[in-house]
Amino acid sequence: MVRCTHPGRTTVSELRRTRLLVIGAGPAGYTAAIYAARAGLAPLVVAGLQPGGQLTITTEVENYPGFAQAIQGPWLMEQMQAQAEHVGATVVQDIITAVRLDRRPFRATGDSGTVYEAEAVVIATGAQARWLGIPGEKELSGFGVSACATCDGFFYRGKDVAVIGGGNSATEEALYLSNLARHVTLVHRRGELRSEKILQQRLFAKENVSVVWHSVVEAVLADSSGRMPVARALALRNVNTGERSELPVHGVFVAIGHDPATSLFKGQVAMDADGYILTEPGTTRTSVPGVFAAGDVQDRIYRQAVTAAGTGCMAALEAEKFLAHAPAEAPAAAAY
Fold first, then answer.
1. Which residues are marked as active site?
2. Phi, psi (degrees; rounded to nearest 5) at 73
3. Which end of the chain has the lower number of beta carbons within 10 A, N or C?
4. Hey, how many other C-beta atoms are within 10 angstroms of the C-beta on 214?
5. φ and ψ of 304, to 5 deg
6. SS3 state at 217
7. Which residues, including other chains, have CB under 8 Å from residue 98's CB and lie 6 or more apart?
């Protein structure tokens, strides 16, 4: 137990010590836990606000190796958790609200009040796609609305789709989809794209790609005639004229960027201008010895479940090596 004294009150919090603390429970976090547990590190995983990460809102997964048929994202995450626990990891349903990484042992405080103390830490809190926040977007997620063409584009072969955005991500998504879909419409609120010129040249050279300029999406419209509602069209508004129109589509891909879930670690580990944790090339090592970053928190390019799992494996192996050579340090005094 840790006794914390504040002006006018005294609270008692549980203290849990572990050799390796994994913060986040998506493919990266669970894979790190599996490898660390098999190495005898008895890792403790704090699952966070959305255990399982973005795969928990993905209905069908066809590109994760080892499964001939499409699998459900939530089911895959349940299996990863079960595997991690089976080999010796402990998964805790808590949300880390504060961390201290300036000295070992590292400390993290949960929303429950529990204080976690660890000799090494794997940050695997993931990233989340930015959404438009319009009617129909959330309701039709997985039923015509997606934020990942690489993940879901396969389901729209020979169909009409729309991509929302104007940067590199949107242009790359449109290019990828142009090889699968019958027609791709890029919707952008401005009169020119912000993506690299070479990407624009490739996009404009595609015969099955068109651009709707100076337009914003006001809603994703549903077809509710079947067993489940699915996307049927976009409600558009021209920002210059105010004219409204509908764009019939089978799929909608929102590509306005991602935000890594790293605000908790700002000022404690090195990050780039967009908040992604910087790691040494070819490793998961951060600027703080003993702290490793895996998955979408440090991957701004691929953001796939399989690449996240790969870096989770790397982080565990590197943490094992670090702990084998790093001298043990006395627990730090509680600071409140």
1. 148, 151-152
2. -55, -50
3. N
4. 14
5. -115, 155
6. strand
7. 108, 109, 264
